[in-house]
Amino acid sequence: MSDVVSMRFNYGNEAPRQFEDFSATALYCPKCKQAMPVRERLLLILPDGELYEYLCQNCGSSVGTKKVSGSSRVRIGL
Q: Is residue 74 part of a domain?
């Protein structure tokens, strides 16, 4: 008998999403001259999403940004 495994793929209109949200844990810091752990800080709330900034945990330098579109967070308007 053959040990063949049958695999079925669904190629419909929507591909399955592997990641809902992706966050960096370490990025290269030019000041520290190596990859360092980072923390994420909300920088701006925009009409089409949110802008986050990544800060080096060692020196506090900004090492990158991330834009999250279509956030599902609840916003309260006054």
A: no
The encoded tokens of residue 6 equal 């049958």
Query: Per the domain annotation, does 8 fall within a domain?
Result: no
Q: Cα angle at 38 between 22 and 72, to 5 degrees?
A: 35
* Residue 51: alpha-carbon gap to chain centroid: 11
Any domain includes 48: yes
Average pLDDT, stretch 67-77?
A: 66
Band of residue 22 on the pLDDT scale cut at 50, 70, 90: confident
Distance CA 62, CA 68 (A): 18
Give the type of residue at 51.
Answer: L
